[in-house]
Design goal:
By secondary structure, this protein is α/β, with parallel strands linked by helices. Helices cover 36% and strands 23% of the residues. It binds adenosine-5'-triphosphate (ATP). Belongs to the ABC transporter superfamily.
């Protein structure tokens, strides 16, 4: 847990980088700080590991007032990932990753074993990459080492300052997805700085949208997109915020259509209009069959079924669904259970996708009546 209580930072030249900041990041929560350049995001973050000292106010990490903790001790409990990763050029990837456990006195063999595990976790095979030097890696691979290194001492808190800022958009999206998967396993308390609203929306359990030195809105991504608290936030999240909602709205079971279903060992059915989904004996997704094939063929479904190319687990975002439809030029995609391996739940069609998006927008409009969030109520703080 990280808590800011009325924190102000005034630099020596009088610049107030942040003023009277109060907010909390719950244990295991990922909060993104987003805002334009110079609004105070990095200052906020660096106060948590005491690279910058606040002028006023107090900051707590796991209930402890950090002004009373030795900064070096404090930093060992807090993982820190920055854009220019800051790997040691003369150390191998494995040695870089094992740096902090080493400093904490963990024996070399144990530190290296742990480092190898973490490299694996961030998608770098330790056998291939462990003995390389940072200059022998791509930008995206270096960022992964940065993340692995920050996790190596198993710190409860992670600070990430534009960690994926220096890589191209495709690699960035891959790193974001991998990081989300990792976070669902390790559940760190994370403060994540970015100037990219898409990244903030995609990664954050909650988002703090910064204006100049102050938080304009602190809320779940869907709420920030659905009901921006001020004209400034509305402007910052952009006119296409309806589209951005695609990435924060999950596919739910209720969104799915139920097409005709046949099983692998069924005789070929004659009554399928256009197509049917094919399941195996355990109701897991196998593929599909067209009505024409079913009518003209002989034997059982098994001999004529085609494998399914595009499917998603329930809970995946509508954006993923949309992207999958486009990628496979598919008019529908099959949705399967996330827990039980592959159990078929139904299909998502463009019409149902549109309905789901509408539902998500309407739900917010009802939950947060716009009249309650007036400019006056915010600017009078
Ligand atoms: N050492 C310093 N002395 C004086 N002013 C500073 C100092 N460091 C930062 N500032 C100012 O404090 C404000 C906030 O800076 P900060 O680095 O926190 O912004 P940021 O939101 O992280 O920006 P960016 O996205 O560009 O990194 C800016 O106006 C900056 O110029």
């Amino acid at each position: 847990m990280i808590r800011f209580e009325h924190v102000t930072k005034r630099y020596a030249d009088g610049t107030i980088a942040v003023g009277d900041l109060s907010f909390e990041v719950a244990g295991g929560e990922l909060v993104t700080l987003v805002g334009p350049s110079g609004c105070g995001k990095t200052t906020t973050m660096k106060m948590v590991n005491r690279l910058i000292e606040p002028t006023e106010g107090r900051i707590f990490v796991d209930g402890e007032d950090i002004s009373t903790v030795d900064p070096v001790q404090l930093r060992r409990r807090i993982g820190y990932v920055i854009q220019q990763v800051g790997l040691f050029p003369h150390k191998t990837v494995l040695e870089n990753t094992a740096t902090v456990p080493h400093l904490l006195g963990v024996k070399k063999a144990k530190a290296h074993a742990r480092a190898a595990e973490l490299l694996d976790l961030v998608g770098l095979d330790p056998k291939t990459y462990g003995s390389r030097y940072p200059e022998q890696l791509s930008g995206g691979q270096r960022q992964r080492v940065g993340v692995a290194r920050a996790l190596a001492a198993d710190p409860p808190v992670l600070l990430m300052d534009e960690p994926f800022g220096a890589v191209d958009p495709v690699v960035r999206e891959r790193l974001q997805n991998e990081f989300l998967r990792l976070q669902s396993q390790v559940r760190k308390t994370v403060l994540f700085v970015t100037h990219d609203i898409e990244e903030a929306v995609r990664l954050g359990d909650r988002i703090a949208v910064y204006g100049q030195g102050a938080i304009e809105q602190f809320d779940a991504p869907a709420a920030v997109l659905g009901a921006p608290a001020t004209p400034y936030v509305a402007d910052f999240v952009g006119a296409d915020r309806g589209l951005k909602r695609l990435s924060v709205t999950p596919i739910e079971e209720g969104d799915l259509d139920q097409p005709p279903v046949v099983h692998l060992d069924d005789p070929l059915p004659a009554d399928i209009a256009r197509w049917a989904v094919v399941l195996d004996g355990e109701d897991n997704l196998h593929g599909w069959i067209s009505g024409e094939q079913a009518r003209l063929g002989k034997g059982t479904v098994r001999e004529h079924a085609r494998r399914m190319e595009a499917w998603l687990p329930v809970g995946a975002s509508l954006k993923q669904a949309f992207a999958t439809m486009l990628q496979h030029d598919a008019g529908w995609i099959a949705v399967i259970d996330r827990e039980e391996r592959g159990r078929f739940l139904g299909v998502l069609t463009p019409a149902r996708l549109h309905e789901a998006l509408r539902r998500s927008i309407d739900a917010d409009a009802q939950a947060v009546p716009r009249t309650e969030v007036t400019v006056e109520s915010v600017s009078s703080r």
